[in-house]
Specification:
With 287 residues, this protein is α/β, with parallel strands linked by helices. It has one domain: Acetylglutamate kinase-like (Carbamate kinase). Helix content is 41%, strand content 22%. It contains nine helices and 14 strands. The strands form four sheets. An eight-stranded mixed β-sheet has the order 5-8-2-1-11-13-14-12, with helices on both faces. Strands 3-4 form a two-stranded antiparallel sheet. A hairpin with an 8-residue loop joins strand 6 (136-140) and strand 7 (149-154).
Length: 287
């Protein structure tokens, strides 16, 4: 039998749901691409929480696509099997031996783990790579890097078919070349290419930082593309944030409505961004 005693937490939850209504209506039918980075995956509990967020998004009419990374897991497996890593300008050279490990980890371990978590949360998900249905055709990023690819041609037909069936696509960042080669693609780059191909309403780049910070170290909640470029030229945006902001700028200038860089370690980060007034992280628009 239900208890009728009111609890402040319950009242706060009801108020939050009430306040979320305009945002739930706003995103009904919208396409949201979520880049789930290896550093944001955390433990089983955090993975389960992320999966529930994605399932809830699908439940309220959003079309979510998860594009994942897996750098820490790849590093661990390369070390375990004794494959030595070589770097050019800080970027890993991907030879055939390394590519075999990358594909094994991303497809056989990380992708299936995310699909299972979504299933456990009551959703329906299908795992795929950029090689499936010719989703992502790549060209070599730099011959010195070996089998590292840059998306050159996208065909999102398979993703749209999954939307129609109310199935959540989970995409591993592995592409194919025009001659059938297998390419390792940067996760952020892959997510940006998927978002552009779908003209997504939002691209959420989940990472392990709170967002883009200004000279004073404060998170900037909203930026235009030209401001991102100015901050990069001034050295304010540096290091690992550069590829993320470059992905964001390219995406918003090629049809994505907005990109948000946010801390994936924060509980319910995606829901906070989409369905609350204050959002989360740094939102980047074209202009």
């Amino acid at each position: 039998m239900r208890k009728q005693t009111m609890n402040r937490d319950w009242i706060a939850t009801a108020r939050t749901l009430n306040e979320a209504l305009p945002y739930l209506q706003r995103y009904e039918g919208a396409t949201v691409v979520v880049k789930f980075g290896g550093n944001a995956m955390g433990d089983h509990k955090e993975m389960a929480s992320f999966a529930r967020d994605i399932v809830l998004m699908r439940q309220v009419g959003v079309n979510p696509v998860v594009v994942h990374g897996g750098g820490p897991m790849i590093n661990e497996m390369l070390k375990r099997v004794g494959v030595e890593s070589h770097f050019v300008n800080g970027k890993r050279v991907t030879d055939e031996a390394t590519m075999e490990v990358v594909e094994m980890v991303l497809v056989g371990r990380v992708n299936t783990r995310i699909v299972q978590a979504i299933s456990d949360a009551g959703g329906r998900a299908v795992g795929l790579t950029g090689k499936d249905a010719r989703l992502m055709i790549c060209t070599p990023t730099d011959p010195a890097l070996g089998l590292v690819g840059t998306p050159a041609q996208m065909d999102p037909t398979v993703l749209k078919k999954l939307f129609e069936a109310e199935i959540i696509p989970v995409v591993a960042p592995i592409g194919m070349g025009v001659n059938g080669e297998t390419y390792n693609v940067n996760g952020d780059t892959a997510a940006g290419a998927v978002a552009e191909s779908l003209l997504a309403d939002r691209l959420l780049l989940l990472t392990d930082v709170t967002g883009v910070k200004n000279e004073a170290g404060e998170v900037v909640t909203e930026l235009k593309a030209h401001q991102v470029r100015e901050m990069t030229e001034a050295g304010i945006i540096a290091g690992g944030m550069i590829p993320k902001t470059e992905t964001a700028v390219h995406a918003v200038e090629h049809g994505v409505r907005a990109v948000v860089i946010l801390d994936g370690r924060v509980p319910n980060a995606c829901l906070l961004e989409l369905f609350t007034a204050h959002g989360a992280g740094s939102l980047i628009r074209a202009g």
